[in-house]
Amino acid sequence: MLADIQSWGETLRLLVELAGTAAFALSGLLEAARKRLDAVGVCVVACVTAFGGGTLRDLLLDRRPFFWVQHVELLWGVMALCVLVMLFMRQRHFEVTEKAIQWPDALGLGLFTATGVHLALNEQMPILVAVLMGVTTGVFGGVLRDVVCNEVPTAFRDHRPYAVCAFAGGWIYAGLGLLDAPGWVALVACVAVTAGLRLMALWRNWELPAWRV
Amino acid sequence: MLADIQSWGETLRLLVELAGTAAFALSGLLEAARKRLDAVGVCVVACVTAFGGGTLRDLLLDRRPFFWVQHVELLWGVMALCVLVMLFMRQRHFEVTEKAIQWPDALGLGLFTATGVHLALNEQMPILVAVLMGVTTGVFGGVLRDVVCNEVPTAFRDHRPYAVCAFAGGWIYAGLGLLDAPGWVALVACVAVTAGLRLMALWRNWELPAWRV
Amino acid sequence: MLADIQSWGETLRLLVELAGTAAFALSGLLEAARKRLDAVGVCVVACVTAFGGGTLRDLLLDRRPFFWVQHVELLWGVMALCVLVMLFMRQRHFEVTEKAIQWPDALGLGLFTATGVHLALNEQMPILVAVLMGVTTGVFGGVLRDVVCNEVPTAFRDHRPYAVCAFAGGWIYAGLGLLDAPGWVALVACVAVTAGLRLMALWRNWELPAWRV
Hints:
The structure is a homotrimer.
Chain A: H1 2-34, H2 39-61, H3 67-70, H4 72-88, H5 94-100, H6 102-122, H7 127-148, H8 163-178, H9 183-204
Helix pairs in contact in A: 1-2, 1-4, 1-6, 1-7, 2-4, 2-7, 6-7, 6-8, 6-9, 7-8, 8-9
């Protein structure tokens, strides 16, 4: 019975991870298409967006092998996704896709943040560093996408809360960890807070405080 | 007799490596000059273009020392090249240079790709990852050059096959490796396929399939 | 008595390090504000500018933990600085700030360069690589700041000597190290040469030699 629940939980976690990775890859695909990149550029930008945040985290924490080396099927999956999308998607589907990926993107942001905090705490990082590693995992894929596409990163510019949602969720995860809460409680709380804040922000049009010029 | 051939082969490999490094550095010099960078910028962009791909590969594979630390004379060479070019080259030589470096650039692309695949396979990477490491070695010097010069990377945008040639050559190298072919056969085949495809693409004006908008 | 002088020297070094870090962070803040980034962007760009150079050096030398993990209070400090500046600084203070940070920026450049050369020599790097690591430590925070803000890096473009001052200072440090001079002599000489050249360059409007087009 308990084993059943655990395996259900594990399956659910895997589904969120796949959905999040696909959402990140798709956001890279859309940006690459908007910039009129060629087929190579589209694939690279999609991979960078999907795997960039976790790779930067692993580089900074000096963890090897990278997660996309251990699970090389993720790489194959994103490349297959690129080919399918390039064959079948048309311009007028862009807006639809952008709306459609908001949910998996928010859930993925929460999950990747929790993963980043978890791995950093495992390496005995100070708590602030661990939370920032979580944010990096969730956010820097998009930052690298924008840098490669020669844009100021959306995450730093559009006044929509994104990184701050991950920041809040990261503190929740780290705090519950300090209180010795079971791992799945911290994970669920982190995803719920991060994704909840993000979706609320999109729904209610919350804006980040502006610089008082 | 056999030793003679081996030492000839080794000399040839070294010549291609030097020519490729110089071609990469020159492409960085030209872009930096076009962007009107100062002397510091010209040197940095040339070094980034020449060494960026291999450095990123070594970072991702966690290899130390870097090849430009082991062979620090390469660094001295590129810096001397920068000074000479800045002293003696004029604007009207730019187009000549661009044509002139197509051959060494294509050969270098092939050789660097083979090196990348080889090193990654040595570290037990999955074959797809190894091939992508080869492509990274050959292509990311130019990508970093364009990012530093604030351009969308040419390799992702100009619809000319470049990374895909390296990708094809990389699979050839890895495939021949799996079939236990001798190292030099795999190397020659990889360089021939990569450089051959690249030069054919330039000659026949091949274009990458475009996104069907 | 000698212990007194040593502890004074150590305090002075710490003060220069804090002033340099603050100056780097402020230059990131100003650029982020000019680009109208949101609060998240401002904090990230300030941190990247303050810690980017040293982090890149540590990545290349494969040193862990990063200095901002060992001294996590630096991270807290820069984030507090960002909040304070966002609350209290107005546009008209930008020019004042830019003038005001020239001195601590130049001193920080010297100190960070010396630190980079020192750490690289400790890892048995060749002397040219060690000097370049020193330059990287001092200069690449600003380069990353400009890349993230989607500008061609100022250090490569404005014809004002900046990296060359660090380059000169780095050779001084490495040279004195080879001559077995005491560490503090090399440190003081490096900071004096780097900061002195930089401030002279600003004062006398020195320009880098231009490309002869």
